[in-house]
Amino acid sequence: MNGLAGLAGTLVTLGAILAAGAGAYAAWRWRFERSRFLVCVLGIAAALAIVAARTTSYGSAAWLRLLPDAAAIVFFIALLRALARQDRSSRRVAAAAHQNAVTGLPNRSTFIAQMTPAMARCRRDGVPAAILAVAIDGLGDIEARRGPATAEDALRDLAAVLRDTARAGDLPGHLAPTVVAAMLPGTAAEAAQRLAERLRAQVAERLPHPSMDGSRMTVSIGIAAIDQGIGRATLDEAMDAAETALIRVMDAGGDGIRLAEPPPHRHAEAA
Question: Of 52, 85, 174, 191, which is most buried by a Cβ count within 10 Å?
Fold first, then answer.
């Protein structure tokens, strides 16, 4: 029995030494974060206290051995909480690299990465696809008159309507910070236009204009239908076509939908 107790004590001592080393490394890593650094320093002190307690005879005051053990338990709980916070922070940073900070939708690079295999599947299966590019009419004026926070709220609300309008299998995202979009696999031009009309109607119905003058928010929508003239267009060509159609709607006064024209070289191929 005494042998087992001695072995346990030795293991605790070795564990405390390792914990002190780990605490020293963590303290160096978090040396610029005061609260975490202090936790690590306290942990090192607790671990060293355990070593001292295990190698010192206290005589009748042997209960003092429990103090560093209790301190170690408190330290390790605090360390686990600090690591959990660090993990949550790392996940937020990772998410920010892939999402638009305002809407939470995939940013352009992530959106393209999601659309690429979807486009490949559509080509493999011989089915059409479409891309919608959507922008709030007068967003620059909203920001100038009501402030950036109001403009961000409007963009966030538009993203929410887009999510609600999109069907299972549709891919929402961003083509630009203020341009939301959706890829519609297996969707021909007519169906894409119907979905765009539904999105436009939902925006007008659900979103009041930030000017609070009783009017409703409006959007401009450009559509690139990959089965209509664009044929086997690349993903970049389809995105450019949708954005060009969007710009033409906005130049015409907004609050409308436009189907993109096929690139000139596609016309030549069709001829």
Answer: 174
Report domain extents, the chain: 2-96, 108-270
Q: Model pTM?
A: 0.64
| Residue 262 burial (10 A CB sphere; 0-12, 13-18, 19+) | buried
The closest of 51, 47, 1 to 27, measured between CA atoms, is: 47
Q: Return all residues near 223 (Cβ < 8 A) that are at least 6 apart.
A: 130, 131, 132, 133, 189, 192, 193, 196, 242, 245, 257, 258, 259, 260
| Architecture in CATH of 108-270 | 2-Layer Sandwich (3.30)
**What is the per-residue pLDDT across 183-193, written as a single tens digit (0 to 9) for each?**
999 999 999 99
What's the CA gap between 2 and 4, in Å, rounded? Answer: 5
* Residue range 192-221, pLDDT digits in tens: 999 999 999 999 999 988 877 778 899 999
Residues of the chain with pLDDT under 50: 1-2, 5, 58-64, 228-231, 265-271
